Amino acid sequence: MHCDEVQELIYLEAAGAADIAARSVIRDHLAKGCITCQATLAEATSAAAQIPLNLSPCSPSESVKKELMRRIKTATPFTQSTRTPATPEPKRMPRKLLLWPLVISTSLAAAMFLVAILSLQANENLRHEHLKDMTALASLQKSFLRDTARLNRLSNQMHDAVAMEKRKISSLETKLAAAESLKAMIGSPALEMASLHGSSPMRTAWGRVMWNDKMKMWKLCVFNMPHLPKSKTYEVWMITTGGKKMPAGLFNTDYKTQSALVTPAVPPNKHEMAEIAVTIEPAGGSPQPTGAILLAGHIG
Amino acid sequence: MTLPKEDQHNDYELMAALAGGDHDALSVLYDKYAGVMLALCRRILRDATEAEQLLLDVFTEVWQRADRYDETRATPLTYLLTLCRSRAIDRCRSRRSKHGKWAVNDFTTDNTMESVVAPGQQPAEAVSTGEQGRLIRRAMETLTDIQRKVLELAYFDGLSQSEIAEATGIPLGTVKSHVRMALIQLRQKLRNED
C-alpha cells in the first residue's frame, strides 16, 4: 500500500478511530521502516492528544488525592526498588537487569532461528537454481547431440558428393586425355586412314579407320550400325596378309546415333596387316569370327 | 505538546522523580493535571463518580508503572492524557457491552464542557493547561462543525471510522477525509500559535 493511502489511516489511528484492519495495515507499513509515515503518525498523535485541553478542567474531590496518596504508600512503583536505600536486599538485581539474560538469550535464539530459516531458504533457492541449470544442461546436451548427428549426416552427404564429383572429374580427365591424344594423333603427319564399307545384311553401314604408327594409336569410326541387344556384341578383327584373323576389341553402337568411336588393339606388326573387319558375336566376344563380316576395309 | 519549555522540563523531572519513588513528585503532577484529566474522564464516561474513580486508578497506574513512560515518544502531559483516554474508552466499551449499544442520540447531543462540569465546581490548577487550553480552543474553533463532531466522536466516544459513519450518516470515505483534514488543520494552527 502506498504512503498516501496509509497516511489517511494514520490520521484515523491518531484520532482513535482506526479499526483492527486499519491498524494492521499501518503496523505492517511502519514495520517496513517508512520514516515519512512514522513522522506523520507522531505529529498527528501529538495534535490529537491536545484535544482534551479544549475541555475546561474541573476539580476532583479532595478524597481522590487522599486515597491516591494512601495507595502509593502501600504500593511500590515498578522501578522504585533500584532507588530505595531501605531495601534489605541491596545485592538483588533490578527486574530490568534480571530480564536482560532472558532478553539476550531469547534474541539469540530468535536470531539463530532466523539464520537457520534464511539458510534453509538460501539452500532451497540454490537447489532450485541447480535443478534449473541441470535441466538447461540436459537440454543443451540433447541439442548438441542433435546438431552433431545432423553435421555427421551433412558430412557424409558432402563426402559422397565430393566422391561423385571426383569420379566425374576423373571421367572428364580421361575423356580429355583421349581427346587430346586423338587430337595429337589426327594432327600428326604420320596419320594414315582407310574407309570401311558395309556388306549384306548391313549394306548402308560404313566406317573409317585411322592409325598413327609412331604413336601406336588406332581409332575406328562406324556409322549406320544398329544398337545390339546385351546378348550380342560387335567385334573388331585384324586380318593378316596370310588370312589369319586376330581379335582387336569389342563395342556396341549408340542407341540413337547408331554410331561408335572405337579404339582397337594395336596390332603387333602393322606391316603384316592387310584388312580390318567387324562381325557380330555373342556377348563377351569370340576367339574367331562366328558371324558374317558386316563391315571391312583395306589397311595394307 | 506545545507547553512552555520550562514547564515541560519540569514535567520530565517530575516523571523521573516519580520513577524513583518520589511521593511528592506524584503529588505535584496530580495537582497540575488532575483537573484536565478528570474533565477528560467525565467527558468520556459521562459520570462524575466513575470519572473520579478512573482518575484515581490512572494515577495509581502511573505510579506503579512509571517505567513505561518513554520521554522520546511523548511529553509527560501527552502520556497522561493518552493513558487516561485509553482507560476511559476501555471502561466505556466494557459498560457498553454490558448494557447494550449506545443510542445514536448519545453522540449527536452537544457535549460541551459546560455539560460535564458540576455546578459550583471551579477549574482547579488551571495554570498549567490554561494557556494551552486557550490555544487548542481557538484552533478547534477554526474547524467546521462536522470536522469537530467527527473528531469528538472518534476521540471522546471511541467510535471507529465505520461506527462514526453509521452514527452520523456520513459516507466512510468522507469520515476519513474529515478526520485527516481536522488533524492537519489543528496541527498547523497549534504550530503557528507556538
What does this structure look like?
The complex is a heterodimer of chains A (300) and B (194). Chain A is of the alpha+beta class. Chain A is built from 5 helices and 8 strands. An 8-stranded antiparallel β-sheet of chain A has the order 5-4-7-8-1-2-3-6. Chain B is built from 9 helices and no strands. Chain B is globular. Helices cover 72% and strands 0% of the residues of chain B. The N terminus of chain B is likely disordered. Chains A and B meet through helix 1, helix 3 and helix 4 of A and helix 2, helix 3, helix 4, helix 6 and helix 7 of B.
In a nutshell, what does this entry contain?
The complex is a heterodimer of chains A (300) and B (194). Chain A is an alpha+beta fold and 300 residues long.
Q: What's the structural blueprint in terms of helices and strands?
A:
The complex is a heterodimer of chains A (300) and B (194).
Chain A: H1 3-15, H2 20-31, H3 35-49, H4 62-74, H5 95-187, E1 191-198, E2 206-212, E3 217-223, E4 232-240, E5 245-251, E6 260-262, E7 273-282, E8 293-298
Antiparallel strand pairs in A: 1-2, 1-8, 2-3, 3-6, 4-5, 4-7, 7-8
Chain B: H1 5-19, H2 23-45, H3 48-64, H4 76-99, H5 104-108, H6 127-141, H7 145-155, H8 161-168, H9 172-193
Helix pairs in contact in B: 1-2, 2-3, 2-4, 3-4, 6-9, 7-9, 8-9
